[in-house]
Amino acid sequence: MPPRISVFPKCWFDELTEGRRSFVAWIRDAARLGGEGVEHYDGFFRSLADADVDPIARALEETGQVTSMICFSPDFTHPDAEERRRQVDRQKAAIDLTVRLGARHCRTLSGQRYPGLTRQEGIARTLDGIRRSLEYAERRGVVLCMENHYKDGRWRHPEFAQPEDVFLEIVEQIDSPSFGVQYDPSNAVVGGYDPVGFLEKVRHRVVTMHASDRYLAPGATMEDLREADGAAGYAAVLRHGETGTGMNDYDAIFRLRDSPVRRISESQACAVLWSVRRWSMTYAPPAPVPAVAVPTAPPVQSARPIVEKSVRLTSLDAFRGATMLFMASEILRIPAIVRYYPDSGVARFLANTLDHREWVGCAPWDLIQPAFMFMVGVALPFSLASRRARGQRFPRMFAHSVYRAFLLIALGIFLRSQNHPQTYFTFEDVLTQIGLGYVALFLLAWTSPRVQWAAAAAILVAYWAAFALYPLPAPGFDTTTVGVPANWPHHLSGFAQHWDKNTNFAAAADQWFLNLFPREKPFVYNGGGYLTLNFVPSLATMIFGLLAGGLLKSDHAGMDKVRQLAIWGVLGLAIGAALHALGVCPIVKRIWTPSWTLFSTGWVLLFLAGWYYVVDLRGYRRWTFPLLVVGMNSIAMYVLVHVGSDYTMQSFRIHLGSALFNAAGPAFRPVFLGAATLLVFWTILWWMYRRRLFVRI
Questions:
Q1: Which residue among 53, 448, 583, 590 is buried most deeply as judged by most CB within 10 Å?
Q2: Among 422, 420, 414, 439, which Cα is nearest to 638's?
Q3: Rg of the Cα trace of the chain?
Q4: Which helix (H) or strand (E) holds 163?
């Protein structure tokens, strides 16, 4: 049967894996290229849930294209046994995706060449991972194709089985009709061995093939190429060439398969996939398809260090989504139920759980803001890695951080100004708090973890000292002048008075600072005790998130990351509680005391450890889809809740009346009305998710 050609968007790999280009749009563009199929990389899919796979399948069906192969990169050599088990589960999921899209071939690899990994151990781990995956592939009618690979773009280390002898030793020990070789001659060149000689050894096992060509940069030698170990991506001495005119002898390669040489300019094609049944060719769409033009001799990919590739954490998106839904549930007004059932223990529990502490202490509701701010820090190392991978430099990224900080502050003020006759300048909203500290956080992200720890400690100690040294109000001071009744049951005494409501250091700072802005009337106090200077200790919260993000982005074993996060969490809880119990500093969320910073961070670290273990290590992702819809559009949800709640509820009253929501009595009317409103908001975000519309600042 003559070979057939299918396309793969290698030239737009980064844009697709990072979500900057729509894969559905690419599928539709690919139909105009004259190919007969499409090869996919699993990273092009936001997830393997039906909501993310179905649009691809529909686009393929509507354009009359077929799927030739799923390109997948398992990391079977990972040091952590739990992670290796997860990699098998990921390979099985890729096999399911292969079947779902009507293909028969799914790529597999060995894994990364981790420092200290012996040849014997690496081969054993690879064989174990492939054999366990093969059992599943055989049942599903899928052929696993092991590629003589160079390095996946998301890996930190080169492919373990890149050396020819290692690859051959692995392949020779696997005897299954559901296993074959995915041959790439350019990878053989980069690996330092002869592509033709290698093909002679594996030709009886080859089922698919990638074909591209390379040539040496001016002045470079083969010795220079051999010295490149792949630690920073493709060797800088290599350039893209025209297939059949570069370092590969395609005449000899194709003679082995009784096939003619096909010459394809790299300005139009990046790779070819060949099998007994089909060819696959990777194109960058030519004009008139709207696209970024690919030059004949594009810049060397290794100029952008692949070690900086960003891998989005599903657990972080899910955790953020859960936090935002918890926050949004305020429109259900559940704590108000206690007014109708004052003797109910359940009602009192819900009221205490779903409302802020009046002053000292911690309720679950109090943890929403620190969790959200902490996750800003966690996400930053991944964001910077993604921007560096796209070639952005520090000046541009710094300018973006300033721009983002300004927008967050402005958006927070805008939302707080609702129902005011003029702009209401206040800075205690979570968005303004993030904005006030974001530039400093960005700059700290470029420093070492030691500097980040030192910065967080210095912030907390200095902020504690500012409160501790600020003079207490004079005896007999009338606290009602700052909005606090004299008989208020939450007044602090002794040394802790330095952190009492509206008579502390930061409250005095607000009486000066906020009156610099035009106001309806002079600012005297904040009714809830919230302060502008909360952004200083909450910056420490974001720094702790930055440290956690650095840990999650590192190449430590998965369970080591979980243990480290848990240890940090327990220490945060212990130190924060000890400072409170010893009278050094009370735990007060409303003014973000240093003890609160540590205590709340401890809880969030434990939550993050749990989410990361369940979702990213164990791979239990399907149930997180409703949370991902919100977590990937958290700003949109925040704005909808603050701007659209009253309008949506009023619309329900107008069009559906009150009887439906009063079915369980007046106590539960706000609950049902709020739940219906939340469902509307989630549906809007789901619509945006399906269309890859994400509000980002």
A1: 590
A2: 414
A3: 29
A4: none
Residue 139 has what pLDDT? 86
Specify the pLDDT at position 111: 94
For 279, phi then psi, to 5°, come to -105, 155
Amino acid of residue 64: G
3-class secondary-structure state, position 557? coil
Q: Are 70 and 103 in contact (CB under 8 A)?
A: yes
What is the distance between the alpha carbons of residues 106 and 72, in angstroms, rounded to a whole number? 7
Q: What is the spatial distance between Cα 476 and Cα 495, in angstroms, rounded to a whole number? A: 17
Q: Is the backbone of residue 200 left (phi > 0), alpha (psi -120 to 50) or beta?
A: alpha
Question: What's the pLDDT score for residue 437?
Answer: 97
How many whole angstroms separate alpha carbon 13 and alpha carbon 41? 9
Is residue 285 a contact partner of residue 15, using CB atoms and an 8 Å limit? no
**274: three-class secondary structure by DSSP:** strand
What integer pLDDT is reported at residue 319 of this predicted model? 95
pLDDT of residue 260: 37
CA dihedral 433, 437, 442, 448 (to 10 degrees): -120
Question: Which residues of the chain fall below pLDDT 70?
Answer: 1-4, 212-246, 248-251, 254-312, 389-390
Q: pLDDT value at position 259?
A: 43
Which pair of tokens denotes residue 46?
């936001």
pTM of the model: 0.62
Q: What share of the chain is helix, strand, coil (3-state, %, to 5)?
A: 55, 5, 35
Q: First-to-last CA distance in the chain?
A: 53
Residue 148: what are its φ and ψ, rounded to 5°? -75, 85
Which tens digits make up the pLDDT trace of 466-501? 999 999 999 989 999 999 999 999 999 999 999 999
Residue 653: C-alpha distances to residues 203, 642, 659, 672 (Å): 71, 19, 9, 12
* Residue 539: how many other CB atoms lie within 10 Å: 27
- Distances, alpha carbon 644 to alpha carbons 154, 327, 609, 648, 684, in Å: 40, 15, 34, 6, 12
415-420 long-range contacts, Cβ below 8 Å, gap at least 24?
415/638, 415/639, 415/642, 415/643, 418/642, 418/643, 420/520
Which helix (H) or strand (E) element contains residue 515? none
